[in-house]
Amino acid sequence: MSVSAIPGRPWTLAAVAALSIQSVLLNPASPEFSKPAPAHSVITLVTTKGDVDIEVTRAWAPRSADRFYNLARLGYFDDMRIHRVVRDQWAQWGINGTPAIAKAWRVANFTNDPFQPEHSNVRGTVAFAFKDQTALTTQVFINLRDNSPTHDKEPFVPFGRVTRGMDVVDRWNKQYGDDAGGGIRAGRQDPLFDGGNPYIDKQFPGLDTIVRALVK
């Protein structure tokens, strides 16, 4: 079945839907990204090593939960490389594989949530990475160990935790460590934003991928 989005040029409904989603992703100011997350939700990351369930609890960090939930809901994390996996420290992702989308979100800042000591950066918790407390965007990480002695002081504020699939996270490719762009503070991520998935796949072909994110 097809529709004619342009006279004389057939488009499948799936292609039209993909273009519609992309247009939303190119606009961080869209009202779609302002919808509050549910009090509790589960985001399943379907990855090349298996599925990972992240339970998001909005009360822990409302701003972070809302951003993560809406990015997942609207497909921002789909076909995304897990670009930073450092053994026994973190697994990080959040740079969209389409440069125009990645660059639009690179400056879509929000302010960090207040830290709640009862929700510490223990193994399996998920938080946003950042350089400045007022400049959180789209990059998130899973703590691969108890990072509370250092991360609680920053603070990195967990908004959820892995409830299924930490064994999958532990198997994500670690061969590149910080070499595939590193963290936000390293200042070496420009090639990922400029080149997108084609650049990443050429330079770091072993990286695992989030095939899609599903909201349950």
What does this structure look like?
By secondary structure, the chain is of the alpha+beta class. It is 26% helix and 26% strand. It has a single domain, classed as Cyclophilin (Beta Barrel). The strands form 2 sheets. The protein has a 9-stranded antiparallel β-sheet with strand order 5-11-3-4-10-8-9-7-6. The protein is globular and about 40 Å long. The N terminus is likely disordered.
Structure keywords:
Cyclophilin, 216 residues, 11 strands, 6 helices, alpha+beta, single chain
Low-confidence spans: 1-9
CA gyration radius, whole angstroms: 17 Å
Biggest sheet: strand arrangement: 5-11-3-4-10-8-9-7-6
Give the integer mean of the pLDDT values: 92
Structural class: alpha+beta
Q: What is the CATH first-level class name?
A: Mainly Beta
Quantity of strands, as a count: 11
| CATH superfamily annotation | Cyclophilin-like
Number of helices: 6
Basic shape: globular
Query: What is the architecture at the second tier of CATH?
Result: Beta Barrel
Taken in chain order, the helices and strands follow as: EEHEEHEEEHEEHEHHE
Percent of sequence in beta strands = 25-35%
